[in-house]
Amino acid sequence: MANFIEAKGKTREEALLNGLEQLNLSIDQVNIEEYIEKPGFLGLGKSVTVRLSVKEENSLLGAEDFLTQLFSKMGITATVVVEEDDKTVKINIVGDSSGILIGRRGETLDSIQYLTSLVVNKNKENYKKIYIDTENYRQKREDALVSLANRIAAKVSKTGRRVVLEPMNPYERRILHSTLHDHPTVMTVSEGEEPYRRVIIKKKRNNSSDNRKSM
Prior knowledge:
This protein has about 220 residues and is an alpha+beta fold. The chain has 3 domains: about 5-55, no CATH class; about 60-135, GMP Synthetase, Chain A, domain 3; about 140-215, CATH 3.30.1370.50. Helix content is about 40%, strand content about 25%. It has helices at about 10-25, 60-75, 100, 105-120, 135-160, 170-180, 210-215, and strands spanning about 5-10, 30-40, 45-55, 80-85, 90-95, 130-135, 165, 185-190, 200-205. A 3-stranded antiparallel beta sheet has the order 1-3-2. It has a 3-stranded mixed beta sheet with strand order 4-5-6. It has a 3-stranded antiparallel beta sheet with strand order 7-9-8. Helix 2 (about 60-75) crosses helix 4 and helix 5 crosses helix 6 (about 170-180).
């Protein structure tokens, strides 16, 4: 149950205004839990007490506030643009520090996305997927991985020698697997343990059961 505060006044309106002033919030940011009216001595001087609780912060504000504070601590000047629907919060970071925010192969951006997801979904019944991008990095990285997969596939088809790629996160591995899923001559498998799990591209065998196993 949400914590609440109590504020008093001679009327409901006065009590409510006193409570909003105490919280430094507007009426759309609070829940009015209860009004308690008490008569004064000998029926004179009625007083009203209102109980107010702060509404649960929505995902949009939670993400924006968290990232603004994070960037401040990192010494980064950036603007956060947030879009939200019923299932997803999409965040685009605009600023001159995109390289710092992206990090090596997007590792810093992935970490920021993970931390933001923890903040937004804390104590929430309905989970929301968090998607963070800057300078269209996600799409550029996906295009680069698709191009890489096709180049390596052509090489493996020609030489017959398998190629072991560098460790990648699950999202990037899925892009490689998806790109070559229906390739006529090569197949992909993942081997190793996180965070060193990597994709191997190798030539298919003629044995159909082996090919199915590798999907």
